[in-house]
Each structure stands twice: as C-alpha cells, then as structure tokens.
Amino acid sequence: MLSQNENLKRCSKCDCLQTRSCFSKSKTSKDKLQGYCKTCAKAYRSNWANDNPDILRGYALRYRAESRKPCVYQLMFSDGSAYIGSTVQNFQGRLAVHKSKIKSKTHTNAKFNTYEEEDVTGMVLAYFDDETTLRQHEYVMIKHYTSLYKDKCLNSYNLNVAEPKEIDASILAVISGSNYENKRQEGADDVEMETY
Asked: What's the Cα-to-Cα distance from 81 to each of 55, 78, 146, 151, rounded to whole Å?
C-alpha cells in the first residue's frame, strides 16, 4: 500500500516504510510493485529453497532435460525465405545465436547477413529423442522443403552435406509429402511446433 508520499511504500512482511526503488516490479498489483521489499523477498526465496531442496532439484532436472531435446527447426525471414537446421542444445539458445550473428553481420551463411535481427523468427518442426538420426531428419526435411519452395530456401551450405547412406523408414513416413505437411498443420504429437 502506498503512503501519502507517493515515493514511499510499506513492506507487507517487515512493515517498514521504504522508497519505491526498494520493491521489485509486479504486473498484477495495483501499484505495479511487489508486496515484499527486495530484502524480505530475497530472504523468503532463500528460506523456501533451503526448505524444499528436492522440489528445486526436480525443477532443475526437468529444465535441463527439456532444454536439451534434439530438434529440427525452421527460421523464417520477413521476405518469405526460410532455413532449416538442427540442434542438440536448447532451441531458444540456438535461435539467439543466429540472431546475434545476424545483428553483428558475422553469420557463416552470407545470405543471413543481408537481414536484420528483427527479420527472423523461428519454429521447432520436430523434437526427437534420439540424436543419432537427427541429421537424417534434417536432411530429409531440407530436401522436402526445397522441393516445394526452391527459390525461398536459404540452405545453400548445409544442403552440401552428403546424403545419409541410409534413411530410416520411419523418418520418411513422418516427413514424406503431404503426410508431413498435414502433421505440421495439425500439430501432431510427433511433429511438435513452437514459434519464437
């Protein structure tokens, strides 16, 4: 609650009257500030972490497992061009690397350097449990995409990767022709899509 002096607020934990800068922001409260001052909030979080180590460890393990899911992704550019790639790391981190290199004009794909950072968005085409077939999936998705949109594909340098000696039949079943496009449009379980 704000005092008569608009620059002061009373902490609901320690009951001290402090300046507004002593409180963190909150989108949901009326005055747009947290109820606890920063000192009390820090002590509360620290106590909670000490009292709940198993819950905290579970959060950390779940985050690590989810953020390291191998995936094939697509970058879309403002002019309709696209790029398909793969990563075994966190997709959002990979997207940030692409954007950073685009911003500094140091991307290894020279075509990317003609864009601005805000010209690119990304989407996960599919997550995979197995890293060993990731390159095969990427290769088939690139070939499929270029067969549909040859003039809009920016995969010049990773299209030069040699075709895998053998491609798992299940990969072709998921990705082949309209079957893959239908699954992408429906958001099927084995072709998860997230746009960033």
From this structure: 44, 7, 11, 8
CA distance linking residue 128 with residue 91, whole number of Å: 12
Give the pLDDT score at 33: 93
Closest by CA position to 117, among listed 88, 135, 95: 95
Question: Which residues of the chain carry a pLDDT beneath 70?
Answer: 1-5, 66-67, 147-196
- Cβ(9)–Cβ(2) below 8 Å: yes
- Note the CATH number of domain 68-195: 3.40.1440.10
Supply the pLDDT for residue 52. 93
Give me the residues paired with residue 75 across strands: 83, 122
Per-residue confidence (pLDDT) for residue 179, from 0 to 100:
40
CA atoms of 77 and 127, how far apart (whole Å): 22
Contact indicator for 158, 142 with CB cutoff of 8 Å? yes
Neighbours of 194 (CB within 10 A): 14
Q: What is each CA distance from 189 to 10, 125, 140, 186, in whole angstroms?
A: 49, 11, 19, 9
* Contact of 120 with 98, CB cutoff 8 Å: yes
Residue ranges of the chain assigned to CATH 3.40.1440.10: 68-195
pTM summary value: 0.52
Strand partners, 127: 71
